[in-house]
Write a structure and sequence with these properties.
Length: 166
C-alpha cells in the first residue's frame, strides 16, 4: 500500500503522548518485544517504565499517532537523548516504535518520524539514531526508505550484576 499524495490530508495526527495514552503505549511495547524479538516482557514492569517516561520528560518523550478522524492511538515512538562531545550536541534516539499491524503501510510511522524529526530540529539536535533487531529486515527496509543508513557501529550491552535484564 502506498502513502497518500503530499497534498492529501494526513491520515493520522501525531502529538505528544499524555497520561491517558499510557495503557496503549504499554500494550504496543509488549507487542513490539514479542513480534520483533520473541520476548515476553513483564507487563507491570513495562507499565511502570512507560509511566516513568510520561511523568519525567528528562527520561524521554512519547509521540502517538491517531487516525485523523479521532480515536485511540494506532502507533507510537519514544525519543531519548545521547550527548555527543564530538558534535557538541544531542542525538535523539528513536525507540519503542510500533504501529498496529492493520495500520501499517499507510503513513503512520512516517508521520511519527517526521514529527519527532521536527521536534529534534527545533531542540537543536545534531541527528537522529535508532537501532533494530538484527533479523528485523522489514524494519531495516522501512528505516532505509526514511533516509536512515547503517553508520558502521555495533551495539554492545552489559547489565550490572544482579540486574533483571532480558
Amino acid at each position: 500500500m502506498t502513502n497518500s499524495p503530499p497534498d492529501a490530508a494526513p491520515a493520522f495526527v501525531v502529538a505528544p503522548a499524555g497520561p491517558d495514552d499510557a495503557e496503549a503505549i504499554a500494550e504496543f511495547n509488549l507487542r513490539l518485544a514479542e513480534e520483533t524479538e520473541g520476548k515476553r516482557l513483564d507487563p507491570a514492569t513495562v507499565r511502570a517504565g512507560v509511566a516513568a517516561v510520561l511523568a519525567d520528560p528528562a527520561k524521554g518523550r512519547y509521540f502517538v499517532a491517531r487516525p485523523a478522524s479521532g480515536g485511540a492511538p494506532v502507533g507510537c515512538l519514544m525519543v531519548t537523548w545521547e550527548w555527543s562531545d564530538w558534535r557538541n550536541g544531542a542525538f535523539w534516539w528513536i525507540q519503542s516504535v510500533f504501529v498496529r499491524p492493520e495500520r501499517r503501510g499507510r503513513g503512520a510511522f512516517r508521520q511519527l518520524l517526521d514529527h519527532a524529526a521536527g521536534a529534534a530540529e527545533a531542540a537543536g539536535a545534531v541527528g537522529l539514531r535508532l537501532y533494530a533487531e538484527r533479523e528485523n529486515h522489514a524494519a531495516h527496509a522501512v528505516y532505509g526508505r526514511c533516509g536512515f543508513v547503517a553508520p558502521g557501529y555495533v551495539v554492545f550491552e552489559r547489565s550490572p550484576p544482579g540486574a533483571t535484564g532480558l
